[in-house]
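User: Predict the complex.
Assistant: Input components as received:
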Amino acid sequence: MDRHDSEPRQGWPAIIEEQGLIYWKTPLPDGEEISYWHEGAYYSLTSEEVYDIEAVARLMLEMLVEAGDYIIEENLFSQMGIPGWAVPRIKETWESEPPMIYGRFDFAYGHDSVPRLLEYNADTPTGLLESAAVQWYWAKDVFGEGVDQWNLLHEMLVGRWRELAQDGRLPGERLHMLHTSAEQSGEDFMTIGYMAEVARAANLMSEIVAIESLGYVEGEGFVDLAGHPVRTAFKLYPWEWMMREDFGTQALEHMGDGPGQTIWVEPIWKMLWSNKGILPVLHRLFPENPHILPAYFDGEQPKSLTSFVRKPLLAREGANATAVIDGKVVEEGPDQDYGEEGFVVQAYTDLGDYGAGARPVLGVWTVDVEPAGLGIRESDGLLTTNTSRFVPHVIAS
Amino acid sequence: MKRSKSVNLVVVPLLAAAFLSGCGGEKETAYCVDKNNQVTDNENCDRGNNSSFFWFFGAAGLGRGSFAPAGDRINSTDKAALAKRGGFGSSARSGGIGRPTGKTIGGGFSGGS
């Protein structure tokens, strides 16, 4: 994989905003703004590299199934900070497999070209629109129709919604697409908007609703503002938050495809995979696997591990993560009060400097249980945080 | 070829324009008030068993103890008229007085296709 400089398209901000990427300006604490979308560079991968990474992602999904079984058998829920009242539904849905749509692996891809799993965002992954659509249009604009990119995300999402609808697995007259109105940049709203777009392409009707406005009627279950029952809800709102909020109990009690019940996408068992506690579990089960970094629940790591990243069990965008090299703290992610439930410690791995100090993380998308495409974010530091940039890619011909 | 054949965006540009133009309007907040319209903790209304507490709907910004202006209020025991709302979303922000209803004052979008 290589990184190349590239001339940005004339008028690119208007182009990407039209395509929904309205949240490209990232404010910094000092009041400056940086661009989250960066088309002044791109990455190129060979077909062999793509097939290799794809194969690793497939293998990871199989290992994750074993890891999920192991968590349930060994009852690791409390160690992972998963509340006991959620456990029965997690176990039940793990078996019954209600509809799931997507997820995103984050891989380190250093100069030895070995993908190493950093984490799996299985519940509320973002970066979707820029991966599926914005970089697709960029590639076409810059390199023409013949260009290739590892990006079947749009087609596979449409296909997945269509398949679920045809199999009768999406009860109700419409889908309810839930975002939080507390998110001000538009990222959550547009991610939900894009999901409504792919559902539309699958001939499904959807309603975009702020999760704050969701109503609950005793005996009838969840309703939207107009009073329509919410039978199938796609939510960009993590389960660990829902669990602890006022409607958490109702969500657990009224989960299912019957009248007065709601099918939640992603399903609640995704709490097993999106939790960073999955990392020590994978390491315990597959200690020799080259794609899995040594990882431990905090406190269980050997003294010999002196270069590592300590991450909260539940957090996003590098929040409250700490990078330690040779026993010294070298970088800390933004403090967003995560970490109450505990931490994991994962061996440090070099993301690689691909030029000008840019360190990429490969976001490998999965639709259902199939690898679907790639979205690369890079940062100047060791941690990939909310100040990292999305950089498009192509497959070198 | 590992690239989608077409990526047709129909809804997304409309939603993006709507969000950017701020036509979401001012977010409505539900406050729990007592019979004198004085703002109190949400939990007084959440219990739904005390007819001297009411939900009042207005713009954000009222604090505990302040008085809500005259306006619509619904008895907190009136379950038929009022599905319980606001039970999700608290983790995404701080503060415990008032809660967004998701409705907007003065227009707004509730999107979809």
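The first helix of chain A runs from residue 12 to 18.
Let me know if you want any component modeled separately.
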